[in-house]
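Can anyone check this?
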Amino acid sequence: MAKKIQTKTPANKANQIQLDPNELKGVIRDGLANMTMSDREEFIRTLEAEMRRISLNVRAYLIPLGIPGRTPEDLTPSEVGHLVRYLKLTVPQAMPAVERAMARYSVFSGKGEPGARLAA
């Protein structure tokens, strides 16, 4: 008798979130707007750290967007949302870093299904 072999696939691939860049920008902006200032700064630092893990520098993407390279407490929710939108459009390899940063904060868990990936 043949054994059934199950392969590992992402959970419910059909149910994964396929946010377009503008929707993602809104999710980030709204989530950050609902955070305290210290949580917002921590999220931005987390995003920077996750991007560094994959050899990308957040500050390098702020300048082309017209956002001065400032400290995390100076970035507004709209600026961070705009940055993530830009990354989704032009740097798809950055999306796993964005996902990991978002996964650490419960404010983003209400946006779609938990554990769903963001389409690059």
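Reply from J.R.: I decoded it. Residues 88 and 108 are 17 Å apart (CA to CA).
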